[in-house]
Design brief:
249 residues, alpha/beta, three-stranded antiparallel β-sheet, 13 strands, CoA-transferase activity, CoA_transf_BS, transferase, NagB/RpiA_transferase-like
Length: 249
Amino acid sequence: MIPAPDRGEIKMAGLDKRVTSYAQALDGLTDGMTLLVGGFGLCGIPENLIAEVRSRNVQELTVVSNNCGVDDFGLGLLLESRQIRKVVASYVGENDRFEQQVLSGELVVELTPQGTLAEKVRAGGAGIPAFYTATGYGTPVAEGKESRRFGDHHCILETAITGDFALIKGWKADWYGNVIYRHTAQNFNPLMATAGRITVVEVEEIVPPGELPPSAIHTPGIYVDRLIVGRFEKRIEQRTVRKEGAGLC
């Protein structure tokens, strides 16, 4: 194994992505920015970074995420403080406050099919400005969008998504910002990490360079700008258990 460079060499080369506070992690966040936020439901959400956004009281945010948390946790906290102007998401069914703000006209929502949302973010990270998809053709999703036929399929043109900040939750990372996600907490996080102008990752553990197998890396450090260790509540959104004495299906 090639020996890892010492900490001083890493700092001098600008490769050490670690920061020491959440204030430092979100330095430069201002009103009107677009945030790409990883997670699916409450699984793999950057809960401490979201809390820092709330404490800064920045306003008129556009948030791109699979969903918007629940009323009292995750992105739901930013709805509670009314810091979000627009949400681009694929699912919003677990948040009563979200529904109320949409119906009252306080909040703009752009509902996007889940696979299309994932591809819009992936395309943004890959530098692809737009792509055609059959999903949504002939529905309100297609309104105002260019359409084209490919063989037997009618498709609509979807534009890519990028953001000012990407807020990401990882499991383990090294000083360089190479990140591993744990099981289903991977979800939207790797896609979002590629598409942010500034990508901030909070993880449960940071290890020295050379300790993570290269084949295990999900997000290479080239995409990561800032890295911080956090402590996580990890709420369970929907807990389902068998009744006592019930057999397995």
